[in-house]
Write a structure and sequence with these properties.
The structure is a single chain. The protein is of the alpha/beta class and about 300 residues long. It folds into 2 domains: about 5-170, 3-Layer(aba) Sandwich (Rossmann fold), CATH 3.40.50; about 190-300, K homology (KH) domain (GMP Synthetase, Chain A, domain 3, 2-Layer Sandwich), CATH 3.30.300. Helix content is about 35%, strand content about 20%. Strand 4 (about 85-95), helix 3 and strand 5 (about 120-125) form a beta-alpha-beta unit. Helix 6 packs across helix 8 (about 250-265). The relative contact order is 0.15.
Length: about 300
Amino acid sequence: MITRAGFIALIGEPNAGKSTLLNRMVGAKVSIVTHKVQTTRARIRGVAIEGESQLVFVDTPGLFKPRRRLDRAMVAAAWGGAADADLIVLLVEAHRGVTEGVERILEGLPEVAGSRKVALAINKIDRVKSETLLALTQELNERYDFTETFMISAEKGHGVDALRTWLAGELPEGPWLYPEDQIADLPMRMIAAEMTREKLTLRLHQELPYQLTVETENWEERKDGSARIDQVIYVMRDGHKGIVLGKKGETVKAVSKAAREELEKFTDRRIHLFLQVKVRPNWLEEAERYSEMGLDFKDGNT
């Protein structure tokens, strides 16, 4: 029996559907999915099994034009994830086509991919007519020599099985890299922090979600099988703290409840979640915060 295993990098612009595709492939929620762009900060690995193949997906941050240190570190992590992978899948949104961002990715792809196989996945195909899809497919394949092209809807699942089957057959032969029942290689502390940050992102508006971060300070196993989790939400200004707390603490209570419920579902156990909000004006310039997010602080240097 021949087994295969390897890393597959999902790359694309912010909001192209990488996290949704990862969660669909793995069959569980391991990556933040929100309506806001640039929400994936760390290179989250999700693990899926297809026949005798173990597919380790690297959900990279979206590739975009960076403006600040955190942006630069995220973009470096995205290209780094692609450079380290065995296979690369480029996601392009069908209804947006070849944007400036896609142009930049196509320019950088030959150097990063080298001789490795790159598949094109045109996502959100339900949003456009078939003639638009065909024209976009032709244009993209003229711009880069993609090994295969797939038409998918990551949200609805269309075409995802065909993509997963192809990836499974293209991975290098070798032993599996993770235990069979493991679906992600992020520590639970980081997954818990990401879940809380997702609930904050969904609840808050405009720029604030990008001005905050969540860290799991303490994880205590209890004798009754439950766990106590203490998390800190770092914000940059006093005014932000008030927004996160909400009137009479209503916002942070709602976030805590939603995050706790999702964590209980994910871990299949009772969770006691305690959130604190702290003002830390320069957290975007602190190396420790980047380590917590799985990013390299040095990558943020200009």
